[in-house]
Amino acid sequence: MKIGEIDLGVRPVMLAPMEDVTDRSFRLICKEQGAAMVYTEFVSADALIRDIPATVRKLSIAPGERPTAIQIYGREVEPMVEAAKIVEAAGPDILDINFGCPVKKVAGKGAGAGMLRDIPKMLEITRAVVKAVSVPVTVKTRLGWDHESKIIVELAEQLQDCGIAALTVHGRTRSQMYTGNADWDMIARVKDNPRVHIPIIGNGDITTPQGAKDAFDRYGVDGVMVGRATIGAPWIFRDITRFLAGLPSEPLSLTQKFALIKRQITESIERIDEYRGILHIRRHLAASPLFKGIPNFRDTRIAMLRADKLDELMQILDSIHLRLHEADPTEIQ
């Protein structure tokens, strides 16, 4: 699959853009684990052109994580164009426009998935951004605003006509948020449309290697994007890519997985500071499958998620690691 001149290989699996998740460190780890391409956190066009430091930091790309897409969102043409030019100067491989974020503070203000209620403005923004930059521009969006307005098949053609190089479709409406099941049949309809010739990337509910394989085999998408299932588990890319390639699974050992989690913590602290760095990483700790199903884990989990000092948190993680190893001494260390 190619986006512009960027060759992502056969059946690429990508890291979805997620606010407070896909920072530079996490992207690099996911890339090392097999992600074909990674996306930044959402970048607000308005905040970027106001030169807000926390927003500007999101534009930093590590050489080892490429190809990388920087994703922007906004609701007006001129700020989006200005932000796109700033982003292009930061040197991403791809510029992605967020027309899919469903959260109230974004969609409720008309940006993100809110644009699904104003298609003319969405298309105007897309055309203007494509014209303003030389890097490939892509779009990520949803099926429609609600069940009564699943417009994605027609919308895909319209966005293609604006000049985008690829389209990612999350298989839910904005009204669904993240509830219910992603509708991959609708994603397949976009891909099956003979008038659509740009790559179509499917997104939604990909949590296992078999799920990724089904997305390619049953629904014919060109690429697959994985989001929430990566939080606290960047090794999912290794599992998926090996499965798609027909290789033995060879999952990472407990020690390797804990090492990745510890690396995220350390690099988060280095990027921000101890308190905020640990606060940032708690979402990964809370979601990680490493800690699922451990008997009598409640008190330890609370302590882990309340720890605000690096030494304290590392000691807790070491104790959990030891506990898991003692429960299964055959685990490769």
Short overview:
The protein has helices at residues 24-32, 45-49, 53-56, 77-90, 104-107, 119-132, 152-161, 184-192, 209-219, 236-244, 254-271, 274-287, 298-306, 310-327; strands at residues 2-3, 6-7, 13-15, 37-44, 68-73, 94-99, 137-142, 166-170, 200-203, 223-226. The longest helix has 18 residues, at 254-271.
Q: What can you tell me about this protein's structure?
A:
The chain has helices at 24-32, 45-49, 53-56, 77-90, 104-107, 119-132, 152-161, 184-192, 209-219, 236-244, 254-271, 274-287, 298-306, 310-327, and strands spanning 2-3, 6-7, 13-15, 37-44, 68-73, 94-99, 137-142, 166-170, 200-203, 223-226. It contains 14 helices and ten strands. The chain is 44% helix and 14% strand. The mean pLDDT is 95. The longest helix has 18 residues, at 254-271.
Strands of the largest sheet, in order across it? 3-4-5-6-7-8-9-10
Span between termini: 37 Å
Give the number of helices.
14
- Class based on secondary structure composition and strand pairing: alpha/beta
Rounded to an integer in angstroms, the radius of gyration calculated over CA atoms is: 20 Å
